[in-house]
Design a protein that fits this description.
- This protein is mostly beta strands.
- A hairpin with a 2-residue loop joins strand 8 and strand 9.
- The longest helix is centred in the N-terminal third of the chain and has 15 residues.
- The termini are far apart.
- The protein has a domain of 101 residues.
- A four-stranded antiparallel beta sheet has the order 4-5-6-7, with no helix packed on it. Strands 8-9-10-11 form a four-stranded antiparallel beta sheet, with no helix packed on it.
- It is built from one helix and eleven strands.
């Protein structure tokens, strides 16, 4: 004689979700080099001209320009697939595909030591501060460096 088995909906959903997560390989966050890391698609690239910078924005099919000020000089830049960071002798400029150009003034005698861009994140080290920028939200954060 066959017994009738009652299934409770929450228990069935829990088993289905657990099965899906295990089969999808949810053993932890994906990391570079493990074969599951998905890169952000290419959205931006920088064009440097003598008195202006152009961000080629493939995501929104446009070119966004920012002019260099008076005696401002382009020094160097870094870019990822979704963020651009530029160092000049007067400012640090950051660009995100949705938010456009944003800048952070350098203090007198402050020098940019390093630039890094990865996905939507920008990291800058100056002689006086640590800076980070989200090319997704357009927000800068800063922390003063300690001497010695």
């Amino acid at each position: 004689m066959m017994q009738r088995v009652k299934f409770r909906l929450p228990a069935v959903l829990a088993v289905c979700c657990l099965t899906f997560l295990v089969s999808a390989g949810a053993s932890g966050p994906a990391a570079p080099g493990d074969g599951r890391y998905l890169k952000v698609p290419r959205q931006v690239t920088l064009i440097v001209e003598p008195r202006r910078l152009l961000a080629s924005n493939v995501r929104l099919s446009r070119m966004d320009e920012i002019k260099l000020l008076g005696n401002e000089e382009y020094l160097r830049h870094e870019e990822s697939r979704a963020a651009i960071v530029v160092a000049t002798n007067r400012r640090v400029l950051a660009y995100g595909p949705v938010i456009g150009w944003r800048s952070m003034q350098l203090r007198p005698e402050e020098k940019v030591e390093s630039l890094q861009a990865e996905d939507y994140a920008i990291f800058v080290i100056t002689s006086e501060r640590y800076l980070n920028f989200s090319a997704d939200t357009g927000v800068w954060a800063q922390k003063r460096r300690r001497d010695g």
